[in-house]
Amino acid sequence: MGNAASTAARPPLLLARGSTALLALLAVTQAILAGNFLGGQYDALMWHAIGARAITIASAAQIAVLAWVWRAGGPRGPFFAGVVQTLLLVAEFATGELHSAAVHVPLGVLLVAGIVQLTATVWRTPLPARPVAADVAVTP
């Protein structure tokens, strides 16, 4: 990445860090809610369904953020991982609606692991330096 690409990549990368952190938090929350439901707290199922909508929508929105990172000179791998993640979340949502626990539970476990991996990848991407203000007159 050149200097211009570096500074251009800073805002989308910061946004990508935020979106991946949000998705990781939602994924862990989904796992907790699923465990609560399986443990007999049946009200947790309603919150798990709401969380499923939230995480799927957030993942779809994240694709645009990861595309912006790539277009600004950042890595392209997270974009493709984000697309696959969103497609798998749609499949996860569908298997939940169809009450197919034999697919829903293992896919959910894999999704949590993948979301955490994508989060780690984005956060390991070096954050470009802030743009330097050039030609700024400093008065004593």
Descriptive key words:
140 residues, single chain
Layout of strands and helices, then pairs:
Blueprint: H1 3-38, H2 44-71, H3 77-97, H4 101-124
Helix pairs in contact: 1-2, 1-4, 2-3, 3-4
Verbal overview:
It is a single chain. This protein has one domain. The chain is 78% helix and 0% strand. It is built from 4 helices and no strands. Helix 1 runs antiparallel to helix 2 and helix 3 runs antiparallel to helix 4. The two termini are 36 Å apart.
Q: Indicate the structural class.
A: mainly alpha
| Average pLDDT rating | 91
Low-confidence stretches: none
The percent range for helix content is over 70%
Separation, N- and C-terminal Cα atoms: 36 Å
Total number of helices: 4
Rg calc: 19 Å
User: Which overall shape is indicated by the principal axes computed on the Cα atoms?
Assistant: elongated
Biggest β-sheet: count, sense, barrel?
Answer: none
- The percentage of residues in β strands lies in under 5%
Can you count the beta strands?
0
The ordered H/E elements are HHHH
The total number of structural domains is 1
Quick summary of this structure?
This protein has helices spanning 3-38, 44-71, 77-97, 101-124.
